[in-house]
Amino acid sequence: MTEEIRLLAFSAALGLAHVMAASTAGLSQRGGLAWAAGNRESEGEVTGAAARLKRASANFFETFPLFAALALAAAVSGKQGGAVTWGAELYFWARLLYLPIYGFGIPWIRTLVWGVAMVGIGFVFAGLFGWSGPGAP
């Protein structure tokens, strides 16, 4: 398994962590297990950390398909290493940090970490078209 595919798999697991964090954090505000087991006619509003985790999860699922498509394109085209690996690493580690940073409500740092993840996606994209990565000729 290549490093990029390993990071893609870890990122998918991180997506599951986002879903679990968002759903469990808001459960008590929505009515507990009775609400969860019901038909959920209303989504139920959440506030505080639960709302932040819900937004963090939505944000993850806005970026993950882009990363996944690019990581798979790199794997299929044999473009592993260099910028692709750098980008996959940046994306995964930034997204891993993003969840608790957003959950705890730390502004500015959250935005910076999101930007690092976007740079990671950009590196993977650039690597597909021949860029070797930071410091490469």
UniProtKB/TrEMBL annotation:
Broad class of the protein's primary localization: membrane
Coiled-coil zones: none
Presence of keyword Transmembrane helix: yes
Keywords, in A-Z order: Membrane, Transmembrane, Transmembrane helix
Superkingdom field: Bacteria
Transmembrane segments: 60-78, 90-106, 112-131
Subcellular location: Membrane
Protein's recorded name: MAPEG family protein
GO cellular component, as recorded: membrane
